[in-house]
Design brief:
With 450 residues, this protein is an alpha/beta fold. Helices cover 40% and strands 14% of the residues. It is globular. One of its GO terms (molecular function) is transaminase activity.
């Protein structure tokens, strides 16, 4: 009754304005009016009410084709019945224990079965936690403190890996012409900046020079060979070879961040790029929509976390780590993401990118689409896109990207803020055609009007 009275008094709360009403409510109790900047839309985000396969229904009862997919974590889409069944069954036995459960063994075995480099695994609750633990593990193994990461690459909310996450042309080089260590957040200590070496994503020669100079001081190099924030372009084999050689030469722990890119093949992303990582971090699709993260690697390296004989070199644990709900959801998610299904979804992704590229070429507008496997990202401008700097949008291009994202929302298709997206297993050629047709029409309209 109270809500009905409020709706009649305020047009913002009228039927059909459910998301706006929720936003106004949330602004009173949450800074920014939502929990994630990445889900922000102007003037307010759509609020999800429920999900059905590759569709999400918002509070205004719009059906949105979901290419954001909770930022690429729902490989089987929303409310996937096998996952729901597994979680329901697990929940009846208890949601969390201060004891290990058999479910953590089974999911760790499933990861080891997919990749020989994932011999042992420790679970946590997010990709951020997994990266944090892997870096601490590398420090414990090497006795060194500094790390290297690639410019513009996102590895979670940890001070060291946030360095040079979003540099701009005015500050991205130091006095020697190398990528500078730039703070992402106010208050990041100066000491952190000095402990992070920043590498260029698409310049293997300069990368080699930096690593030859700094390598003996490094505990770890962390790399995502298909980094969405760095353009969603595959890292060149020349660059991955430089990384691999430097790590072997100087005893550096190579960490592959496959939180997103693990979906690219049945075994994960590293084999695609000739990488032989020491530690691998995963999350997202290995949790079936539940909170999860993992650090995996060879048994001799994972021993850095071994607490069975006393205090480990590096402690790793958490109240909800390896909780049975996430373990059950993750196991079913992986079981249903078979080698055949990976190949089918990757083929759909290639079809989507080719359709978009052809449509853009036929329209004669300056745009391109990147990505591989089931991932894609739109760029405004003549290209080519080879890494973070060439993907960095001008102010005008950034405005156009936001306009395109909003226009796609009006077409009932949900993309991330930088107009990237992911396919999920409920999708078919029908959804691929819908996405490509809508995106080409929107891009042609918005760029043709310039």
């Amino acid at each position: 009754m109270k809500l009905e009275q409020e709706r009649s008094a305020d047009p913002a709360l009228a039927v059909g304005n459910g998301s706006k009403a929720a936003f106004l409510r949330e602004c009173k109790v949450v800074p920014g009016g939502s929990m994630r900047a990445a889900s922000w839309f102007q003037p307010h985000p759509p609020y999800a009410a429920r999900g059905e396969g590759c569709w999400v229904i918002d509070l205004d009862e719009r059906r949105l084709l979901d290419c954001a997919n909770n930022f690429f974590s729902l490989i089987h889409g929303h409310a996937y019945e096998p996952v729901l069944d597994a979680v329901r069954q697990a929940m009846t036995k208890g949601t969390a224990f201060g004891m290990p459960t058999e479910s953590e063994i089974v999911l760790a075995e499933a990861l080891a079965a997919r990749s020989p480099r994932m011999e042992q695994t420790r679970f946590c609750n997010s990709g951020t936690e997994a990266v944090l633990a892997a870096i601490k593990g590398a420090r414990g193994l090497t006795g060194r403190q500094r790390i290297a990461k690639f410019e513009g690459c996102y590895h979670g909310a940890y001070d060291w890996v946030e360095v040079s996450l979003d540099p701009v042309p005015a500050n991205w080089d130091d006095e020697h012409g190398n990528p500078a260590s730039i703070r992402c957040n106010a208050g990041t200590p100066d000491s952190v900046l000095g402990e992070v070496v920043v590498l260029p994503y698409d310049d293997p020669q300069r990368c080699a020079e930096i690593l030859r100079r700094e390598g003996p001081t490094l505990a770890a190099v962390i790399v995502d060979p298909h980094a969405s924030r760095a353009g969603a372009v595959p890292m060149s084999r020349e660059t991955t070879s430089v990384i691999q050689e430097a790590c072997r030469r100087d005893g550096i722990i190579l960490i592959a961040d496959e939180v997103i890119s693990f979906r690219l093949t049945y075994e994960g992303a590293s084999p695609l790029f000739g990488l032989e990582p020491d530690l691998i971090t995963t999350a997202k699709i290995i949790g079936g929509g539940m909170p999860i993260g993992a650090v995996s690697g060879r048994a001799d390296l994972m021993a850095v976390f071994d607490h069975s004989s006393g205090k480990p070199k590096v402690s790793m644990g958490g109240t909800f780590s390896a909780n049975p709900l996430s373990m059950a959801a993750g196991l079913v998610s992986l079981e249903h993401y078979s080698r055949q299904e990976v190949e089918r979804l990757n083929a759909l992704g290639e079809t989507l990118r080719q359709k978009i590229r052809k449509g853009i070429a036929d329209a004669g507008v300056a745009a391109t689409v990147t990505g591989m496997g089931s991932l894609f990202r739109l760029h405004v401008g003549p290209g080519p896109v080879t890494g973070y700097r060439s993907a960095f949008p001008s102010p005008e291009a950034a405005k156009l990207i936001r306009k395109i994202q909003l226009a796609m929302l009006e077409e009932n298709i949900l993309l991330t803020p930088n107009c990237s997206g992911a396919l999920s297993t409920p999708m078919t050629e029908v959804e691929v055609s819908l996405i490509s047709d809508k995106l080409v029409n929107v891009v042609s309209r918005e760029l043709g009007a310039q």
